[in-house]
């Protein structure tokens, strides 16, 4: 029996080695001296796998065990690395195109529960008043404690017109909130624009998708249709990010040609890159350069970029580039702080892994990881300084990647925003109504507009 177990262990070690090789890892990973395949650890893994197969209370499928092992290996690295099964990989591909089914919530994990990073605008979650920082503790009658992020996302997604009940814990509320949402096909309009006053334009990005930079160019053209602009507000609040080339393209719309937008650095040569404001770094395929026909004035028009704690990843790349090149004034509150790059590595059977492969840096070499972009002018969400909810940031996430430019203890964490407590007798507490951007009640937007008008007066004098 012992001999049989040993033989099984050797077979499993060979299997593990084969899996590693199939993922393009080698015994000399990254050509680091002394980096060899960890045979003893693989033997231990094989022993555990064999113990589960032979002793677990119920039979477990080999494929399920290996899949869970891969998932655990990746999720244990950082909050953004993950194994993508067929459904998750399909959802990721659909999301970059701007259409997918579900509730419209960007989520992460915190203390074993699902935590809202940002609701996506014009979705069921946004319309129901779900806020960044909300902790989803139940999906229908199922506790989210112990669920993987992938499992929770699967439960939230489903056929359109079906409902799901979310139980939410929110700081400042005396009891959990319950809200029932009806699933929809989420068609995210990533770019919105309007002329708020004669000569003053407003652009909003809700997510960086495949066509976001091209859409920005179209909206800029519409804003300039009736003449030159005196000022422009670029709104990146609650934009969770998206595709890197989209961030480069959006930045290139406002920066001089060939200006450095962002650089990345990791352990492999492929991870060491510099992205500039040039077609080769923001176009996909052989499409025509959609930025070539932009009005000349867009390169010099006074700009304010609005950000908050929901501005993450690609949003921070754009804000950091425009800030470092002194092209725009950054206004609002400190951003999320996701300064890492994830590479999608397709596997067999339409699955993939999402692996953190690099950190990114602003043109001046600043690392945004676990810190975020600090605005040039800090403006809270309301005139009395209230923040409108818990400000969840990358630095608050378990196993977050550190900032390699600044020690962790030197990266200040701003205090959480003030939240009005619920009344003890509020039996029917519900999330607040959705916030309306770029209106008279949008304090940060009105301050941005006031600044642009002030700059216009200064320039005239």
Q: Total number of helical segments? A: 11
Low-confidence stretches: 1-31, 412-428
| Corresponding CATH superfamily of the largest domain | 2-enoyl-CoA Hydratase, Chain A, domain 1
Helix-residue proportion? 25-40%
Number of strands: 19
H/E element sequence: HHHEHEEEHEEHEEEEEHEHEEHEHEEEEH
**What is the percentage of strand-forming residues?**
15-25%
GO cellular component, one term: outer membrane-bounded periplasmic space
Signal peptide: 1-29
Domain PDZ: 89-157
Region (Disordered): 402-437
What does this structure look like?
The chain is an alpha+beta fold. It folds into 3 domains: 2-60, no CATH class; 86-187, Roll (Pdz3 Domain); 191-343 and 357-416 and 439-460, Alpha-Beta Complex (2-enoyl-CoA Hydratase, Chain A, domain 1), CATH 3.90.226. It contains 11 helices and 19 strands. Strands 3, 4, 5, 6, 7 and 8 form a 6-stranded antiparallel β-sheet that branches. The model is unreliable at 1-31 and 412-428 (pLDDT under 50). Residues 1-29 form the signal peptide. InterPro entries: ClpP/crotonase-like_dom_sf (IPR029045), CtpA/B_N (IPR055210), PDZ (IPR001478), PDZ_sf (IPR036034), Peptidase_S41A (IPR004447), Tail-specific_protease (IPR005151).
Provide a compact summary of the structure.
With about 450 residues, this protein is α+β, with helices and mostly antiparallel strands.
Task: Based on the model shown, name its key terms.
about 450 residues; alpha+beta; Pdz3 Domain; 2-enoyl-CoA Hydratase, Chain A, domain 1; 6-stranded antiparallel beta sheet; 6-stranded mixed beta sheet; 11 helices; about 30% helix; about 20% strand; globular; endopeptidase activity; PDZ_sf
